[in-house]
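S.,

Sequence below, as promised.
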Amino acid sequence: MPRTARRKPNEIVRSWPTVKSEDPVGEVARRFTLNLREAIGERSIRAAARAADLSHVTLVAILEGRTWPDMETIAKLELFLDADLWPGRQKPSSDEQPAD
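The prediction came back faster than expected:
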C-alpha cells in the first residue's frame, strides 16, 4: 500500500509562519520554525547550517516550511545551536535526570 503524501508545513499553516495554525501539528511546525529563527539570530543561514553540519538548502527548506525536519536534523540543530527548538518540551525534573 503506497504511503499517503503529507502536506508540507507551509501548506498547513496559512501565511507561514506568521499566523497561528488551527491544525495542532502545523502549529508545532510553525513554532519550531520561529524558535529556529530566533536561535539562528544574527548568523547567516550558511553559518548556522555549517555549525549544525547540515546543508544550507535543508535549513532554508525548513525555514520556508517546504519540508519536515527529521529527528537527526532536529538533534543537530538543537545541539549545535545550543537551543531548545521543540515547542512545549518539558525539562526533566531533578528526579528524572540521569545519575552521573
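The first helix runs from residue 9 to 12.

Coffee later?
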